[in-house]
Specification:
Blueprint lengths: L9 E5 L6 H16 L7 E7 L3 E7 L4 E3 L3 E2 L4 H14 L7 E4 L6 E5 L5 E10 L8 E4 L7 E8 L6 H8 L11 E6 L1 E2 L2 E2 L1 E4 L2 E10 L4 E2 L6 H22 L11 E3 L5 E3 L5
Parallel strand pairs: 1-2
Antiparallel strand pairs: 2-3, 3-4, 3-5, 6-7, 7-8, 8-9, 9-10, 10-15, 11-15, 12-13, 14-15, 16-17, 17-18
C-alpha cells in the first residue's frame, strides 16, 4: 500500500491472448487496490492493453466497477477513450477535504472538517474493500486519542453511526463505547459527496473519535479474553436497558482493548 499511495493510475499490458474472465478480474482488482490506497480519490480509472491491438478502460468507485467493451485500435472511438483517460490523470475526482502530503519520507494526509478544524500528519490505519463502504481509518502516531473514520454508507441505511454514538453518550461518557468528537457528511462544492449506481447511492461520512485500542487477538491469556467477553456482554446489556439500543455487530474486529484496562467497541485496530 505504501507504493500505491503515490501511484497516478493502474495499468496492465498483456501478450496477445484471448481475454479470460480471470484476467478481467485481476485487472479490476489492481484498480480496486489502488483506490484503497488513495482515500483522497472518489473514483479512479485504469487501463488494460493487450498486445497493442485492443484495450479496456476500467472505472471504480465505492458503488461499482465499470469495464468498457474491448476496443480495437482501428476503431474511431479508440482515440477518444485514451484522451479521456489521460485527461483524468490531470483532473482526478478528488475529495477536496483531504490533502495528500508526499514531501516527507512517507505519505501522510491532512483532513479539513466542515467546521474548519484541520488534522495534519495522518497515516492510514485501515482501508476497507472496494466496492463497498470503503471504511478508512486515519490516525496520528503522536496523538494517543484522535482517530478519524470515513465510510461511504448506503442512503437507505436507517441509522448513522455518529447519531447513535451521540445518543449513547448523551448523559455523559458511556463506558465501553468510543467517544465521539465530531461527525459529518462530507461535502464537495457545498453538496454531499456521493457515488451511485442505478438505484443505489452511497454518501461519504466522517467521524472524529477520541479513543484508540488494540485488536482482541492481542490478548495474551484465556483468563483475560474471558474477562473482556464478560465486559462486552455487560456493556451491551446496560446499553439496551438504558437506551434500548441493540449492538448487532459484535465481532472480533469490533472489540478493542485499551492499555488502560477499559474495553471499547470500535473498528480501529492498531
Amino acid at each position: 500500500m505504501s507504493h500505491g499511495l503515490n501511484w497516478r493510475r493502474s495499468g496492465k499490458i498483456t501478450p496477445k491472448a484471448k481475454p479470460s474472465e480471470n484476467m478481467r478480474v485481476k485487472e479490476a482488482a489492481d484498480v480496486m487496490y489502488h483506490l484503497q490506497a488513495r482515500p483522497d480519490l472518489i473514483a479512479i480509472a485504469g487501463v488494460w492493453v493487450r498486445h497493442n491491438e485492443e484495450y479496456n478502460v476500467l472505472f471504480v468507485d465505492a458503488c461499482k466497477v465499470y469495464c468498457s467493451r474491448r476496443v480495437m485500435y482501428t476503431e474511431e472511438v479508440c482515440k477518444r477513450l485514451p484522451y479521456a483517460f489521460v485527461w483524468s490523470l490531470y483532473h482526478p475526482l478528488l475529495d477536496t477535504s483531504i490533502t495528500r502530503n508526499t514531501t516527507n519520507d512517507k505519505t501522510t494526509f491532512s483532513i479539513t472538517l466542515s467546521d474548519g478544524a484541520r488534522y495534519d500528519n495522518l497515516e492510514l490505519g485501515f482501508t476497507g474493500s472496494v466496492p463497498g463502504r470503503r471504511t478508512t481509518i486515519f490516525f496520528k502516531p503522536d496523538d494517543a486519542c484522535t482517530v478519524i473514520k470515513e465510510q461511504y454508507i448506503d442512503s437507505d441505511r436507517r441509522f448513522f453511526e455518529g447519531s447513535i454514538l451521540k445518543i449513547i453518550h448523551a448523559s455523559g461518557d458511556f463506558p465501553g463505547f468510543v467517544r465521539l468528537k465530531w461527525s459529518e457528511y462530507v461535502k464537495n462544492g457545498g453538496q454531499r459527496l456521493a457515488v451511485s449506481k442505478r438505484s443505489t447511492t452511497r454518501f461519504k461520512t466522517r467521524l472524529v473519535i477520541q479513543d484508540k485500542g488494540t485488536p482482541l487477538d492481542s490478548v495474551k491469556t484465556v483468563r483475560e479474553l474471558l474477562m473482556i467477553l464478560y465486559d462486552v456482554l455487560e456493556v451491551t446489556r446496560i446499553l439496551h436497558r438504558t437506551w434500548h439500543i441493540i449492538h448487532r455487530d459484535i465481532s472480533p474486529g469490533n472489540i478493542l482493548v485499551t492499555d488502560r484496562g477499559a474495553h471499547i467497541h470500535g473498528t480501529y485496530a492498531s
